[in-house]
Amino acid sequence: GENVEQHPSTLSVQEGDSAVIKCTYSDSASNYFPWYKQELGKRPQLIIDIRSNVGEKKDQRIAVTLNKTAKHFSLHITETQPEDSAVYFCAASGGSNYKLTFGKGTLLTVNP
Amino acid sequence: DAGVIQSPRHEVTEMGQEVTLRCKPISGHNSLFWYRQTMMRGLELLIYFNNNVPIDDSGMPEDRFSAKMPNASFSTLKIQPSEPRDSAVYFCASSPGQGQREKLFFGSGTQLSVL
Question: Of A55, A57, B11, B77, which is the most exposed, with the fewest CB atoms less than 10 Å away?
Answer without folding.
Answer: A55
